[in-house]
Amino acid sequence: MAEFDFDAVVVGAGAVGLACGHALSRRGLAVAVLEQDAAIGQGVSSRNSEVIHAGLYYPTGSLKARLCVEGRRRLYAFCDTHHVAYDRCGKLVVATTEAELPRLAVILAQARVNDVEGMAELSRDQALALEPELACAGALLSPESGVFESHAYMLALQGEIEAAGGAVVLSTPFEGATPLEGGGFEVRAGGAEPTTLTCRLLVTAPGLSAQAVAGRIEGFPAHLIPPAHYGKGVYFRLTGKAPFRRLIYPPPIPGALGTHYRRDLGGQGVFGPDLSYVEAPDYSVDPSKADAFYRYIRKFWPGLPEGALSPDYAGVRPKLHGPGEPQPDFRLDGADIHGLPGLVALFGIESPGLTSSLAIGEEVAARLGL
After folding, report:
1. How far apart are CA 233 and CA 258, in angstroms?
2. How confident is the model at residue 12 (pLDDT cuts 50, 70, 90)?
3. Is the whole model's pTM more than 0.90, yes or no?
4. What share of the chain is helix, strand, coil (3-state, %, to 5)?
5. What is the pLDDT of residue 258?
6. Does 370 score more than 50 pLDDT?
7. Spatial separation of the C-alpha atoms in residues 113 and 119, rounded to whole Å
8. C-beta neighbour count of 253 within 10 angstroms
9. Whole-angstrom Cα distance, residue 360 to residue 330?
10. What is the model's pLDDT at position 1?
């Protein structure tokens, strides 16, 4: 039997890559997680809303529906055992006009199909009793939604991997992989000290560079690598007291959940993200976008003071669909798709990828026969 340097190599040390490494190390495997940046979680994982999604919206039977609900349950338990801060504050999905009320009914029905606990339909008065500054015609209450400290979560995952004898190797970009005769892979890693190592199993979870990484694996069919689309979203921070305790979401827009409100763990209000497609990742925040944010937010919070929003940060989501196209499911492509035994390649792990991450790790392990 061939000797390998590691049982498994995971490409990407964001939340999903670390969760995959954690799932594999829990099964007694020696795992190396390769990360091109100088710290964990510097890509998609550090530029999001840190929202724990309950799993309301996703199509029946989809990976997003199943893995979000399972991942959310696992995530709260993991945060409890690893002392990661969170606030299970709940979420209101609001209809800002009577015309939007039928959309709430569709979301509620889907949430119940998806086995989301505790959902409740609220009248305007019931919603205002919970959040007096809100303007709405009605709302849905999702008590299982929340926010959490995503970087502390990733540090805990890294600690678990290392405690199990694995390694999270920073400043080490993935340069390519070659399948070996008899199984396994030779992996080439760059950085200050380029190296080659061998492994039995390979998982690619590099977020925005998923397509580029797959293209560097010999024998990966090029026609099975989906086109990459970059969905940029900017956030604005509120100066002054946070108006709502709960997350506030309007009904979803095509291709995303829409610009929403959250109170972060520091007690400040943050709005975002919007959605615009860009040719390449770009993290600038255009202050002139504030005008559109004021108009949008005042639909559900008419009391937003003029001048209270300041540009905060931007994130870029690894989308598998372009403007106007239907939003596809997560892709966790195993040998049944691409024909390379021992490899699972992840594509399009955008929202709710952070919430789903622990369940994605378990699903990847299952697809590797573990």
Report:
1. 10
2. very high
3. yes
4. 30, 25, 40
5. 72
6. yes
7. 11
8. 11
9. 10
10. 47
